[in-house]
Design goal:
With 322 residues, this protein is α+β, with helices and mostly antiparallel strands. 26% of the residues lie in helices and 30% in strands. The strands form 4 sheets. Strands 5, 6, 7, 8, 9, 10, 11 and 17 form an 8-stranded mixed beta sheet that branches. Strands 1, 4, 12, 13 and 14 form a 5-stranded mixed beta sheet that branches. The relative contact order is 0.23.
């Protein structure tokens, strides 16, 4: 008779919500406020359709008129547009040999859930950085990119002054940029200059800031030929929704009884939306209707800015550190 198996300790109805909530707790993206969870996007991610149209009214344009006796006012119109998001489906499978240590815990399901949630927190960060490669390569987002890497000498390096120039891309809306994602080499470069400040939140959890903005370190931030891309974000710049479509199985366990004393498998699936607000997914390059790949999300052809410039709470800053 086999000993304790994953099927004995994994209760999908409890495991799924735990993993989802724990993922958001562990994610620096959620903790910094860059990614905002929205029940509206939960609903969209649960739909059968892979694309989701989100119409909105654009801001009022024009200037006021002088009131003159006997002269009619000019009737102005309000225009509309639509943002578009796409559902992302991802899955991961682990064998019991990878989770065997967790089975020794006092609460195996919680222990395994913590490991799985940690994986998804890291994977979601990779997902967003990959997506941003496509977003900022789009022609409509060129005014949100500052590239100083072609400057001569130190003028090509990130500095307090050049960082302010990056903020200035949003003009009087730059105060909305509250967090910055950078490569670990960039953080080390700034730290050597004593420009990184460590702070504590209300729960005594430490976090780093640069020019008052929370720092997120991710070596997935692009670096090509010594040119680094650092991202600046505002609160809620990215919308997140966790979906549970009809017939979708989020967690399954399986067992191969023929291998040795048996091998357990844990399969965890996610259906979600991770959408940069105001940059519509164009669905121009897509091989499969049911899902979009990371390569397709990184394709500039698939993205188009639909919000006004200052309403986009994201900036890409290309620079060197040599």
């Amino acid at each position: 008779m086999a000993g304790t198996t994953l099927a004995d300790v994994i209760v999908p109805e409890l495991f799924n919500p735990y993993v989802i909530n724990r993922t958001m707790e562990l994610s620096a993206l959620f903790n910094s406020g860059i990614v905002a969870h929205s029940p509206q996007f939960d609903k969209l991610a649960s739909e059968a359709a892979p694309l989701h149209n989100m119409p909105f009214f654009e801001d009022l344009q024009g200037s006021s008129e002088a009131i003159l006796e006997g002269k009619d006012l000019t009737a102005n119109k309000i225009t509309s547009n639509k943002d578009v998001s796409t559902t992302i489906r991802r899955a991961m499978m682990w064998s019991a040999t990878d989770l065997s240590a967790a089975l020794a815990g006092s609460d195996p399901m919680e222990a395994i859930g913590s490991l799985v949630a940690g994986f998804w927190a890291r994977d979601m960060q990779k997902e967003l950085i990959n997506e941003l490669n496509g977003v900022f390569a789009a022609d409509t987002m060129k005014n949100h990119v500052l590239d100083i890497s072609k400057n001569t000498g130190k003028a090509a390096n990130i500095s307090a002054s050049s960082f302010i120039d990056a903020l200035q891309l949003l003009g009087d809306a730059q105060a909305n940029l509250t967090a910055v994602a950078m490569h670990s080499a960039v953080k080390s470069y700034l730290k050597k200059q004593n420009l990184i400040v460590t702070e504590r939140d209300s729960t005594s959890v430490e976090f780093d800031t640069y020019q008052g903005r929370r720092v997120i370190v991710d070596d997935g931030c692009p670096v090509t030929d010594g040119v680094y891309t650092t991202y600046l974000f505002g609160q809620g710049a990215v919308a997140y929704g966790n979906g549970n479509p009809v017939g979708f199985v989020q967690t399954e366990v399986d067992r191969d009884k023929k291998k040795g004393s048996g091998v357990d498998y844990l399969i965890n699936r996610r259906t979600f939306i991770l959408h940069p607000r105001g940059v519509a997914f164009q669905n121009a390059v897509r091989a499969n209707a049911e899902n979009v790949t990371r390569e397709e999300l990184a394709n500039a052809t698939n993205w188009k800015r639909v919000y006004e410039e200052k309403q986009i709470r994201m900036v890409a800053f290309k620079h060197k550190i040599s």
